[in-house]
Amino acid sequence: MLSLKEFLRREVKPALGCTEPGAVALAVARANQELPLGELKSIQVVVSDSVYKNGLAVVIPGTGGARGNALAAALGALCGKPGYGLEVLKDCTPQDVDTAKRWVELGKVRVQCDPNQHDVYIAATVKKGTDWARCVIAGDHSNIVEVVKNGETILRSENASQAADLLFQKIKELSYPELLKLVEEMDAEDIHYLMKGATMNLTIARAGLQEGCGSGPAFGRKMQQLMHEKNLEGDLGYLIKSLCYAAADARMSGVKLPVMSSAGSGNHGITAILPVVLVGEKTGKSREEIARALAVSHLSTSFVKSRLGRLSQVCGCAIAAGAGAAAGITYLLGGKLEEMQEAMQIVLANTAGMICDGAKESCSLKVGTGAFEAYLAALFALLGSKTAIPQGLLSPSIEQTVNNMAELSQEGMRDLDRVIISILEKNFHSPKLCEGNNNLQKEVEN
């Protein structure tokens, strides 16, 4: 049986920077932990297509704008602390960054994509002298399923593939109404934790509104400028959009502040949390009422993600977290289960087909879109709007609609990541490191 506390512990946790390079750094740091101090020989990492795509060119926090999985891997060995989880690089210094860049330039660090691996998969091998250690993360971004040193197994899940997917399997076994019953288990500890996440994400949003914050396009700050010029500062929808823009602006341009994630993604966390909190504050809801609505939002986000997968061809920020936030806002404003499901259907009808083209600063646009459309969908549902079902991808049940979205992503867009990665490698003049090779891991160990 799934409990609310287990759900929150696994699905809602702090993350620093984009979670894919963060997970790469975590895997390297955990492998490095097994080795003695000494000169680095090499770091070799094999990742899935989705991890490769999302980490190829995203800014790493605290690096002054430096990008990419290879830099994250180097930093994982230099200053990464596995005990910090997805905040593994929070002790990173400018000296560490300089050394990491030098290692990458010298060819000591190699991150290669195995296109036969999908979703979250990272196998990091660190070599020092004659010693080597490998750490494998699979299923979710902090799920370490194997640690090996010099051929000796230090840690291994009995069934790594099942262990990686266990939580999502539990969620998939429940209907949407059954999953939402977990909210009834909420206690004071859960309320405190959920509101801690709200504070965390509001903090980075406010940082993103400051002049000179990060290196990105500052859509949040520009949005608030437009709101002032057009006399729209009192509009809650535009406020939601501007603060979600700002939080993602800051996060994706490398500002060294954590966010509370949802379903394995910091940007999902921004979308799932901020609209609910802002509506709650605007309408005078209590701390407990907002926390309960946040639990609904996180649960609903993971309900969608459990079908789509941790990493998908479509944008989970707008689709999964947008649907989650719509349900949370509807609940917060007094909507019943039927209206919450209708709000989710409206978001899914609206955002179906929005692709994920890798992690980068302009992700803030999709985060803002998902948050704004979640707010509108909740209002539409509360006004009694109903989509004529079935139509398009929409089916009579929210379960079947989400399954339809998963089929679109996994079957209809099967080759999308390969095409996007090819385009990204051309854009960044990167060598082609995402070729089919079933012997990648053996090559690494040799």
UniProtKB/TrEMBL annotation:
Residues annotated as domain Serine dehydratase-like alpha subunit: 85-421
Source species, domain of life: Bacteria
Annotated InterPro entries: Ser_deHydtase-like_asu, UPF0597
A single GO molecular function term of this UniProt record: L-serine ammonia-lyase activity
Coiled coil: none
Keywords: Lyase
Homology family: Belongs to the UPF0597 family.
PANTHER family tied to this protein: UPF0597 PROTEIN YHAM
Protein name, per record: UPF0597 protein QBE54_08500
Native source species: Thermatribacter velox
